Amino acid sequence: MINYTEEILIKEASNNLEFIRPSIQVSEELNSFFKDYNFDFKLDELKELMLFNSLITISKLDLAIIAKNLKKTNIKWEAIYFMKNAHLTIHETIVAYNSYNKFLCELVQKSESLKERFHSINSALKTFKTDYKISTESKVIRNKMAGHIDKDFKLYYDQLSNLNKLENLKMIDHFIQINLKFLDLNSILISYKN
């Protein structure tokens, strides 16, 4: 399961978000300054990496909070609430991640080890999506139960009643591990020198 306690993950993610927001503001202001004075210096790449970091950090934070509360509850529908929100968070993270994939793919071309690391993480994500049926089951949960509420109550009830708490905790842990790998890659890319 998760190597860190959820409390540590939540504190790390919270601190990271508090750091990223002003950093993005500074990046935007410096970019504007450099453009005003015709300096050939851009911080767009750094800003995009910070935005990617914020996406992964938000996902990690939400999933750590969900896992913490899912572990504590013994009430069926409270557990279902946390499980459907885990599916929603994972689905939306993957959708948002896809918008960064081309950008990251270009950045990792700087070295063979970066390309290998990126490929490894994407392979782990692909396996995750297959193992946990993200394109089918999670998508239905997102579209008909978590992101929206479908009027087909039988579908709602039957689908959510079949969710397994231990299996969902395992899924959350697995996705947090992928998030941590993305955060490590992001840190390397931010500090990478040509």
Q: What do you see in this structure?
A:
The chain is mainly alpha-helical. The chain has one domain. The chain is built from eight helices and no strands. The longest helix is centred in the N-terminal third of the chain and has 31 residues. The two termini are 37 Å apart. The model has no long low-confidence stretch (mean pLDDT 86).
Quaternary structure of the protein: single chain
From the alpha carbons, calculate the radius of gyration and give it in angstroms: 19 Å
Number of domains: 1
Q: What helical percentage do the residues reach? A: over 70%
Tally of DSSP β-strands:
0
| Fraction of residues in β-strands | under 5%
Element string (H = helix, E = strand): HHHHHHHH
What's the rounded overall pLDDT mean? 86
Low-confidence stretches: none
Main sheet: strands, sense, barrel: none
Bulk shape = elongated
Please describe the topology of this protein.
Elements: H1 6-36, H2 44-72, H3 76-98, H4 101-107, H5 112-131, H6 134-146, H7 153-161, H8 165-191
Helix pairs in contact: 1-2, 2-3, 2-8, 3-6, 3-8, 5-8
Overview features:
about 190 residues, mainly alpha, 8 helices, about 80% helix, about 0% strand, elongated
In short:
This protein is an all-alpha fold and about 190 residues long.
